[in-house]
Amino acid sequence: MFRTAFSKSRGAAWALGATAGSAVTGWIWTSQQETPAFCSNDNSSVLGMLQQVSQRLEHLEHLVGGKSIASQRSSTKDSPRIDIVLGAQWGDEGKGKLVDMLSSGGYDVCARVAGGSNAGHTIVVEGKKYKFHLLPSGVLNPNAVCVIGNGVVVHIPSFLNELDSLTAAGVDWKGRVLLSDRAHLVFDLHQEVDGMSDAGLGRHKLGTTKKGIGPAYASKINRTGLRVGDLQDDSWDNFERRFRNLVESHKQAFPSLEVDIDEQLAYYKAVAPRVQEMMVDTIQYTNQQYDQGKRILVEGANATMLDIDFGTYPFVTSSNPSVGSVLTGLGVSPRKLGGIYGTVKAYCTRVGEGPFPTELPVEKNSPGFHLGHVGAEYGTTTGRPRRVGWLDIPQMKYSATLNGFTSLNLTKVDVLTGLETVKLGVSYKYKGKYLDSMPANLKVLEDVEVEFEELPGWKEDISSCRTFEELPMNCQTYILRVQELIGVPIRWIGVGPNRADVIDRGVGWDLSESPSQS
Ligand code: IMP
């Protein structure tokens, strides 16, 4: 199966389906050079011959220029691209670090397309910690323009605070932050209602971030919401009328809700000029940038398993944090999409309630304790301890199917260091039968029996490794097994908490860089 799926992508294709130091389904993996040796028993097939030709071509490319055709293509400055970094699990996979790394390497525009200040990531640059909730972390790249797309819901006080903290930290963002006039506003009343609704659910609570995300999207869908573009002087009467109606409708549903309407209106009138300076038609802007050959990076927020349509509903967020939101939250055509980079932790975490098939108990000295403790698993937005578990392969396959990842960013592999053995959840069984898809019914998902594969752990510190070959053999085996099971090449490997602690295996490990994709 891998051979068919990946025969297009030389380099990446070779290693998929292979295990370190062993031959699997006709391929021999030589971990020394990441170059496959082709097994003779496949030479007789047409596919086998094609693969040999492809391998020879790659060898020739290597001899002629040292650089592959794919890497030359990717360095062409004036070919436009929209690349996307997405969370592949339940969030907090470490997307921010990849975005930061990529954006310092030549993206002209960094964008957020969905969610709001429920998202959170921390970036450490030269010892300084930056926390982001609404802004794309690409704002740290002085050459990038940051776009908050129409699909995002914006709590203006939090947004302005985030900008003020950047100013205080010496980051010059003026003129580089653009806010869609179509983005919906999150009001304080949405945040209060968020808390009230969740508390009202008692022991069935969702455990939301209380940032008003669900209620703000509900107002959008109800068509009672207000948008950034309503904060204009000549439509102030309209803003005021609609805001009063919004308060009224929420008070009917939540009689204990208290809103000082005059104080709120005065606040929005006062900050409107600041907002207007950043307000643009981001659909037009983004598409014009693309047409001019610019490179655009979309910074996904939240994650696929929290998607309102595809996640573990109702224990989800209220937007679509999977690939679809790039189209609806930025206003670009699917034909413009390039790399779709799925970020996946080498294990699994989840904040808040909801099913978590590979979840581990966290008693002292258990693997669960190790993951939570060594991985410092506490929410950036809420500070809550995250639930932890082994990597869930059926969940990752589902995520890869939905998003069409062109490569994976496997983060926090160093957190596994020191464990005697590491496990992978490889299949779900329900009532004795294997499941071949992600069950929609939460009761089924809660009751699935997970089959695990156990691999030997490693003790060596991997934080200074900068090539795949430098990793301990057991660590290589783990990564290759994950790659084989998910069926998507792993390009980036996180080996430590610092900005530089990443192995980049290069564009040969990204299917969007494959010659057949261009
Ligand atoms: P909401 O997005 O605040 O409505 O929260 C809904 C669910 O999504 C809760 O379980 C949150 O903990 C979870 N959630 C929302 N955003 C994130 C995130 O960025 N990382 C992890 N969990 C999140």
Helix/strand layout:
Layout lengths: L1 H5 L5 H4 L7 E2 L2 E2 L8 E2 L7 H20 L3 H6 L6 E7 L7 H9 L5 E4 L8 E5 L2 E5 L12 E4 L4 E2 L1 H13 L8 E4 L3 E2 L2 H13 L12 H10 L13 H18 L7 H18 E2 L1 H10 L3 E5 L24 H7 L6 E9 L2 E3 L16 H8 L12 E3 L1 E2 H11 L3 E5 L9 E10 L2 E2 L7 H6 L1 E8 L16 H14 L3 E5 L7 E3 L14
Parallel strand pairs: 4-13, 4-14, 5-8, 5-13, 8-10, 9-11, 10-12, 14-18, 17-19, 18-22
Antiparallel strand pairs: 1-2, 2-3, 6-7, 15-16, 19-20, 19-21, 22-23
Helix pairs in contact: 7-8
The protein binds inosinic acid (IMP).
Inosinic acid binds next to helix 8.
Question: Could you explain the architecture of this structure?
Answer:
It is a single chain. The chain is built from 16 helices and 23 strands. The protein has 2 domains: 326 residues, Adenylosuccinate Synthetase, Chain A, domain 3 (Alpha-Beta Complex), CATH 3.90.170.10; 98 residues, Orthogonal Bundle (Adenylosuccinate Synthetase, subunit A, domain 2), CATH 1.10.300.10. The N terminus is likely disordered. The chain has 518 residues and is of the alpha/beta class. Bound molecules: inosinic acid. The site of inosinic acid (IMP) has 19 residues, from helix 8.
Summarize it:
GTP binds at residues 91-97, 120-122, 386, 412-414, 494-496. Pathway: Purine metabolism; AMP biosynthesis via de novo pathway; AMP from IMP: step 1/2. This protein is an alpha/beta fold and 518 residues long.
Low-confidence stretches: 1-15, 17-46, 59-76
> What is the count of DSSP helices, taking H or I runs of 4+ residues?
16
Cα end-to-end separation: 23 Å
Task: Please state roughly what percent of the residues sit in beta strands, choosing from under 5%, 5-15%, 15-25%, 25-35%, 35-45% or over 45%.
Answer: 15-25%
Inertia-based shape: globular
CATH homologous superfamily annotation of the largest domain: Adenylosuccinate Synthetase, subunit A, domain 3
What is the share of helical residues?
25-40%
Mean pLDDT: 86
- Rg over CA atoms, rounded to whole Å, is 24 Å
Biggest β-sheet: strands ordered side by side in the sheet: 12-10-8-5-13-4-14-18-22-23
Ligand names: inosinic acid
In CATH terms, what is the fold-level topology of the largest domain? Adenylosuccinate Synthetase, Chain A, domain 3
Q: What would you say the CATH architecture of the largest domain is?
A: Alpha-Beta Complex
**Main beta sheet strand tally, sense and closure:** 10 strands, mixed
Number of strands: 23
The overall number of domains is 2
Can you identify the CATH class of the largest domain?
A: Alpha Beta
The class by helix and strand makeup works out as alpha/beta
